[in-house]
Amino acid sequence: MMNILVLHGPNLNMLGVREPEVYGTDTLEDINRSLETAAAGRGIEMRIRQSNHEGVLVDEIQQALGWADGILINPGAYTHTSIALRDAIVAVGLPVVEVHLSDIHARETFRHHSYIEPVALRQICGHGSDSYRLGLEALIEHIGTGSEG
Ligand code: DQA
């Protein structure tokens, strides 16, 4: 068994409607369903949460301690601003994979820097909604390797 917390940050509840030319037409529901499908039958339990509030995301990360084996997170715009999210990740000490739909390095300069990247196993971006599935596989592989080794 493996428990994974999936966290979506601000404005990701508007996927499908929000700037489809940047983020694609998949809704958050579509993304969550594809993650559930990828996890199905593999002994993976997922807790999926979205919040527009930084403190709620911090709470979710803290509450993952003792339950989750890893965290898959798209911190949205908090990627570029939030020392609090980064500190929460370090505090719980769980493996984290950071994902973005868009290629943040090919966009405005203010999106190039991530406070999360230095404390994440990996940052996966630019694959649209597939970034999540790729991120999930990277996280599963890491957790699996850790528990066997
Ligand atoms: C995003 C990229 C961020 O820069 C932006 O603020 C988002 C979405 C992405 O998934 O591409 O809200 O995290």
Which features would summarize this protein structure in a list?
alpha/beta; 149 residues; 19% strand; 5-stranded parallel β-sheet; 5 strands; binds 1,3,4-trihydroxy-5-OXO-cyclohexanecarboxylic acid
Describe the structure.
By secondary structure, the chain is an alpha/beta fold. 38% of the residues lie in helices and 19% in strands. The protein is built from 5 helices and 5 strands, in the order E-H-H-E-H-E-H-E-E-H. The chain has helices at residues 20-23, 28-39, 54-64, 83-92, 130-148, and strands at residues 2-8, 44-50, 70-74, 96-100, 122-125. It has a 5-stranded parallel β-sheet, with helices on both faces. The longest helix has 19 residues, at 130-148. It is globular and about 40 Å long. The relative contact order is 0.20. The mean pLDDT is 96. The protein binds 1,3,4-trihydroxy-5-OXO-cyclohexanecarboxylic acid (DQA). 1,3,4-trihydroxy-5-OXO-cyclohexanecarboxylic acid (DQA) binds at residues 11, 74, 76-77, 79, 100-102, 104, 111.
What is this structure's SSE topology?
Blueprint: E1 2-8, H1 20-23, H2 28-39, E2 44-50, H3 54-64, E3 70-74, H4 83-92, E4 96-100, E5 122-125, H5 130-148
Parallel strand pairs: 1-2, 1-3, 3-4, 4-5
Helix pairs in contact: 2-5, 3-4
The structure holds 1,3,4-trihydroxy-5-OXO-cyclohexanecarboxylic acid (DQA).
